[in-house]
Amino acid sequence: MFIAKTFSDQGSYFLQNLENYRQAVIKKEISLAALFRSFSLQDEFFDQLLGIDTKTIRQSALTKTTHQDAVDSISSGYLFIGKLINFLKPYKHLKFVDVGCGTGQVLCAMQADGFGHLIGVEPNSNAISIAKKNVVKNLLKDPLTKVDFFEGDILDFNLNLGNIFYLYWPFQSETSVDFLSKLRISHSRLPREIFLIIYGQIRDEVKNYFDFLSYHSTLDHFVVFSTKELRN
Q: What total number of domains does the chain contain?
C-alpha cells in the first residue's frame, strides 16, 4: 500500500508515485475513497490521478434557469467526495443525480469507484462540455458505469430518473422551493428510495418543503434526508 502521511512534501511524493497509485486503485489494493482521505492535497493533484481537469467555471450568460438564481459552481473537494463514496457504498445500484455537476468532479470520482448510473445536471454550457470530456478521459473509469448528462435547469429535468440527489447548493431559495415541490410530486407518482444530500444550513423559507422526507444523518457539513420507507 502506497500511503505516506509522514512525508513533508506530500504533493511531490504523490506526483512521483502517481502511476503506482493508479495501479493500486485498478488492482483494488486501495480504494479511491481511502486515497482521497490519505492526502491533504489540492484538487488538481487528484485531477492528475484521474487524468481530468475540473477547474471551476463561473456562471455566465450561458447559464439559463427559470429563476436566474444559479450561483458560481464550487467543487465539493476530493476529501469530502471520499467520505461521500463511503457513505453511499451500499446504494451504488441507485441512480445518482449530481444537481449542478459543474465540470464533473463528483461524477468522475464515482465513475472510477464503480457506481451504476450517474446523471449530471448542469445549465452552464461551458461547464457541462468539460464534464462530458472528463468522463471520457477518466483514466480510472469503470467501463460498466453509465454516465448521462442533462444540459439545462433542474426544474426541466425528469426527476423520476433519480434516486440520490446531491446538491452543493447550486441555486438559491426560489429554485430550491420549486425543486422540492417537484420532487415531492415525483415521489408520490413513483414511490421509490430517495436520498437528498444537501450542503449547508437549510434556509427557513425552504424547510416546510421537506415534509415528504425524513432526516437521515449528517455527513460533515451536509444534511442527508431520505424517504420514510427507506429510513424504516
A: 2
Q: What is the mean pLDDT of residues 182-194?
A: 96
| 97 and 203 together in one domain | yes
Euclidean distance between CA atoms 142 and 111, whole angstroms: 6
Burial 32-47 (b: 16+ CB within 10 A, else e): bbebbbbbebebeebb
d(CA 61, CA 149): 20
Mind listing the pLDDT tens digit for each residue in 84-99? Answer: 999 999 999 999 999 9
Check pLDDT > 90 for residue 73: no
Q: Is residue 59 part of a domain?
A: no
* pLDDT of 66 higher than 70: no
| Structure-model confidence comparison of residues 179 and 201, the more confident one | 179
Rounded Cα distance between 228 and 232, Å, is: 6
Report yes or no on 73 lying in a domain.
no
| Residue range of the domain that includes 31 | 10-50
Q: What is the DSSP secondary structure assignment for residue 157, as one 8-state letter? A: S
CA dihedral 10, 13, 16, 17 (to 10 degrees): -90
Residue 127: count of CB within 10 angstroms of its CB: 27
Question: How many other β-carbons are positioned within 10 Å of the β-carbon of residue 102?
Answer: 26
Confidence of residue 157 (pLDDT cuts 50, 70, 90): very high
> For the CA atoms of the chain, what is the radius of gyration?
18
CA distance 139 to 228: 38
Contact of 200 with 218, CB cutoff 8 Å: no
Better-predicted residue by pLDDT, 63 or 202: 202
